[in-house]
Amino acid sequence: MPPRVFRAVLLALVLAATFSATARAQDELDGGVSYAAGQEFLESVFFPPIKHAPFSLILTAEWARPIRNGGNFTMVNARPIMRDSQGRIYMERRLLQPKGTNRPSPLSMIQLADTVARTFYQCDPKPKICELFSITGADPAPAHPELTTSAKSKDGKVYRLHEDLGKQFFAGVPVHFYRDTFTYQPGALGNDLPATSVREFRFSEDLGFNVTSIVDNPQVGRQTFTATELTTTEPDPRFFLPPEGYTIVDKRKPSAKP
Predict the structure, then answer these.
(1) What percent helix, strand, coil does the chain show, rounded to 5?
(2) In 153-220, where do the E strands start and end?
(3) pLDDT digits (tens, 9 = 90+) for 190-227
């Protein structure tokens, strides 16, 4: 697999250890924070490599963290993401910018995932270098949030209330709206007082991902992801090839090369 940043899963690590796989089918797909090379990264919506379900969209993100003396410190970005009928994914990574400054989000990385060819390109726009890695292991299983249930953790310190808020249309596609509310008793996360976190998401079964996702908890603040300019037509094939003018550096092990 390509290198992955260490994910500080925040509340999700506790959930993974305390709830069954069925009850946590949707929790670890998006939201949270990662750390790599001493930097903090916002985890985004998870886009699975599903075939025969192409799309193009602009994903907006807003991360509001409370300031001790009141108010919020808010960062935003917007970036294009595409998937073709083969399940190949094109994704840009863009830096967060302070909300209200109207600064464009600088491009930090282009990522190309092809689960048919089992290749992953990570392209840095500054030196114009694409590192090529092998994709190993099984593809991620589709999410099934309808299987999630209200439940209490094994130690009784965390309770999840799962609410099915019904079917809707969002950005022109049918979605199902869900809300999960987690209540943490003192000591569940090192907290000395009861704490609550809420996540709401509109899941598209046809596309296999959340077209909106809100994660609101006391550890990371409020993270809001929204799919905008969503279309379900086939993207231009050129997006799924390394950008012109970039040097390819093959990082695959010899046994993984064709």
Answers:
(1) 5, 50, 45
(2) 158-170, 173-184, 195-204, 209-217
(3) 889 999 999 999 999 999 999 999 999 888 889 999 99
Token code pair at residue 92: 């840009």
* Helix, strand or coil, per DSSP, at residue 204: strand
CATH topology for 6-253 is: outer membrane lipoprotein receptor (LolB), chain A (2.50.20)
Query: What is the number of other CB atoms lying within 10 angstroms of the CB of residue 113?
Result: 22
Structure tokens at 40: 């903090």
- Residue at token pair 């993984």: 256
115 is written with which tokens?
A: 């689960």
CA distance 210 to 104: 25
Q: CB of 233 within 8 A of CB of 241? A: no
Q: How many CA atoms are closer than 13 Å to the CA of 204, on its beta-carbon side?
A: 25
Record the pTM: 0.83
